[in-house]
Write a structure and sequence with these properties.
The structure holds two protein chains of two kinds. Chain A is mainly alpha-helical. Helices cover 73% and strands 0% of the residues of chain A. Chain B is 75% helix and 5% strand. Classes of the chains: A mainly alpha, B mainly alpha.
């Protein structure tokens, strides 16, 4: 089978990445089944926590809300990581064959974005069984933003550390710390938390769920974070795929 | 341990040694996790129930201890997952060259213990900045138990899942188990918590850190849990290296 030379390179790249992803039925299960399972698990796990004044909502609801955020955000992160590592040389060769590096990057990022949208929908649907957000669309967009941020972070880690074991360890430790800090179980006021990617979308999300308002500053900072991370990922990815992805 | 099992273990350790980034990560990540979390949580007092004892402590001390099993679970789980993935290819070839699956299994489990042996002193040294544990020896045992139990869980996850799915399951599963279900700040524990892999190990760690006497039955339960999960993982591992995909 040969590619249609008149087709849009971005669509071709996205199509190839998606086919690669859905070829493994487990991956589809990952996107559709695991996020709801974890959202439910977070809710059950937190129902035995005491209500503390700084917590938003009852602990069980907070658990469901946190679970939705973690499940939706970390999946694109891991997919971004593995995509970049596994496609390192293939994308390098495609780059030599005439595909623009920007097109290749956009195709990879579009796949991550699609997974973020689907995982967010699955996580949010589960959350809706227990918690009704005051502003559902804003809540959903906050989840997708978190997914995009982690997708880019995963791509960046994969580009800088292109080995699966090491890349996984780094991503897992960043995400776990981020999840703990934004869990609302402990009130952390240190400015260090603002360096973690989940903080701004998480605050946006909590406001959208619990009082229906938009945290404008957090929205701007989340977009700024996305922009900076995106630029960094593009630069590193371009270096990675130059010269056919060999020796970089 | 047979000579060939020792050779396989030595080969694995050399591979680790040839990957300085991995070694650096095993040294740095536990320090980062325990150190950062205990540094940024507020210095507020907290009362928690550990076994039958009521313990008055502060959040940095409590979470410095609670983060040690988290680190063990994450490193053990990911290392186990990747060990099973490599069993399907590289280790199956070793069997073809005449290695007994049990020898390879012993070597791979030895690698998990070695990884646990690297992260445990680092995590505990960083923890010791904020808390002088009541019984350091038991705390070391508890950390090794959680790490190796999650190593066995990682092996099992690696059978049913590819790396992508496996990393996601270990990441969220360990968070759910150690940080949420076993969190000492919870007022009571759900029945689910007692069935999860980190339950007894975490309880032992908290006992060792905050109380002068460790409940030996908790240690026995943790050991039994490891033996059961480890045996199942070993049987499946043996099956995988004999019949690679």
């Amino acid at each position: 089978m040969t590619a249609d030379p008149t087709a849009d390179p971005l669509a071709q790249g996205l199509g190839a990445a998606l086919r690669e992803f859905v070829r493994e039925p487990l991956n589809l299960g990952l996107v559709l089944v695991l996020p709801p399972l974890f959202v439910h698990g977070y809710g059950r796990a937190m129902e035995n926590f005491p209500s503390i004044p700084f917590m938003h909502g009852v602990p069980q609801h907070l658990g469901v809300v946190n679970g939705a955020m973690a499940a939706a955000a970390f999946l694109p992160g891991i997919i971004g990581l593995f995509q970049v590592i596994s496609a390192r040389q293939a994308d390098g060769r495609l780059s030599l064959a005439g595909f623009g590096q920007d097109t290749l990057f956009a195709a990879r990022f579009a796949t991550v974005g699609l997974v973020a949208a689907i995982a967010s929908a699955a996580a949010m649907a589960t959350m809706l069984l227990e918690v009704t957000p005051d502003a559902p669309m804003q809540a959903y967009l906050a989840l997708v933003t978190a997914g995009l941020l982690y997708g880019l972070l995963g791509m960046l880690v994969g580009a800088v550390l292109p080995r699966e074991l090491e890349g996984s360890l780094v991503l897992v430790f960043i995400t776990d710390m981020d999840a703990f800090l934004s869990s609302g179980i402990v009130e952390v006021e240190s400015p260090v938390v603002n360096l973690f990617p989940l903080q701004y979308p998480h605050r946006l999300y909590e406001r959208a769920v619990f009082d229906g308002s938009v945290a404008a500053t957090d929205a701007v900072l989340a977009l700024l974070y996305l922009l900076v991370l995106g630029l960094l990922a593009i630069v590193v990815y371009a270096r990675l795929t130059e010269n056919g992805g060999v020796g970089s | 341990m047979s000579r060939r099992a020792l050779t396989a273990l030595e080969m694995g350790l050399r591979e680790y040694g040839r990957t300085p980034i991995l070694l650096a990560l095993l040294l740095f990540l536990p320090a980062y996790m325990v150190g950062l979390f205990s540094w940024i949580v507020p210095d507020s007092p907290v009362r928690v129930e550990i076994g039958v004892a009521q313990v008055a402590t502060e959040f940095p001390e409590l979470y410095a201890v609670a983060m040690v099993p988290v680190v063990g679970a994450l490193v053990g789980g990911i290392a186990g997952l990747f060990a099973m993935q490599s069993a399907r290819t590289a280790d199956a070839r070793l069997v073809l060259t005449g290695f007994d699956p049990v020898e390879i299994m012993v070597a791979r489990f030895g690698l998990l213990v070695a990884a646990a042996g690297v992260i445990t002193p680092i995590a505990l040294a960083v923890m010791a900045r904020v808390l002088d544990p009541e019984q350091l020896g038991w705390l070391v045992i508890a950390t090794l138990l959680v790490t190796t139990t999650y190593g066995a869980v990682g092996l099992l996850v690696g059978i049913v899942a590819n790396r992508l799915v496996g990393v996601y399951v270990i990441l969220l599963g360990a968070t759910l188990d150690v940080f949420l279900y076993q969190n000492p700040a919870a007022t009571e524990q759900s029945w689910v918590a007692a069935w999860l892999p980190a339950h007894y190990g975490t309880r032992l760690a908290l006992d060792a850190a905050f109380t002068p006497v460790v409940d030996r039955s908790v240690f026995a339960h943790a050991l039994c849990y490891l033996l059961v999960v480890g045996t199942i993982a070993a049987l499946v591992f043996r099956h995988e290296v004999r019949e690679p995909e």
